[in-house]
Amino acid sequence: MKEVTIFILCGTKNTRLCCEKGLVLFQGKPFIERIIDIVLPISSNIILVTNDTEYDYLKYKKIIDPEKEKGTLGSIFTALQYSNTKYNLILSLDIPLISTELLMELIDKHDEAAEITILSSKSRMLPLIGIYSKKIAPLLQQAIAKNELKLKNFITTVPHQIITFDESTENQGINVISVDELDQLPNRM
Question: What's the pLDDT score for residue 171?
């Protein structure tokens, strides 16, 4: 398996969930702890990108995101600046159904010619379940300077790979951004 650093983008408070998204409980465990449990078999090199002290109880390294006003693109740039590895698994923390096996498949299928490899369902790209090369940090910095902050648009400007997962694992990419979606999770397992 390739050596990877795992960056979990903790983001900000979610108004639709009325709290810090990573601390939302699902099956008795906060999202952030579920994601950490899922990625630990892949690597213990886990870094949280956050400006929130609510994650201080976790033993993992935390880095402050000075680009927080630049959205996801800025957070990925921040992560890659701190990386010491060629490969970086970038994850949002609102995907509580993701599995270790699917992430390992993503890593295994990553083509070295691609600077970014992301997962996709039949209906949408999932850019926050992806492998990002440290080499793209200068390109991210240029996009931020130009205020070109749409991650999906950025991905199309670099060599990239999209891995579509099959129907049996499609629920693993579900992002939970509202109370209704949280309530529907048990039906999707």
Answer: 52
Six-digit token string for 173 = 């990419």
- Give dist(CA 87, CA 34) in Å, integer: 22
Query: How far is residue 19's CA from residue 65's CA, in Å, rounded to a whole number?
Result: 19
**Rounded Cα distance, 58 and 45, in Å:** 14
SS3 state at 147: coil
pTM of the predicted model, to two decimals?
0.87
Could you tell me the sign of the dihedral formed by the alpha carbons of 18, 32, 64, 3, in that order?
negative
Report the DSSP beta bridge partners of residue 133: 87
For the record, the structure tokens of 183 come out as: 């309530």
User: Nearest 5°: phi and psi at 117?
Assistant: -130, 125
Rounded distance between C-alpha atoms, residue 126 and residue 81, angstroms? 22
The position carrying tokens 């993503």 is 106
Beta carbons of 167 and 117 less than 8 angstroms apart: no
Element spanning 101, H or E: helix 100-109
Q: How far apart, in whole angstroms, are the C-alpha atoms of residue 90 and residue 113?
A: 18
Residues 129-146, mean pLDDT to the nearest whole number = 96
What single-letter DSSP state applies at residue 74? H
The token pair that represents 33 in the structure block: 């702890």
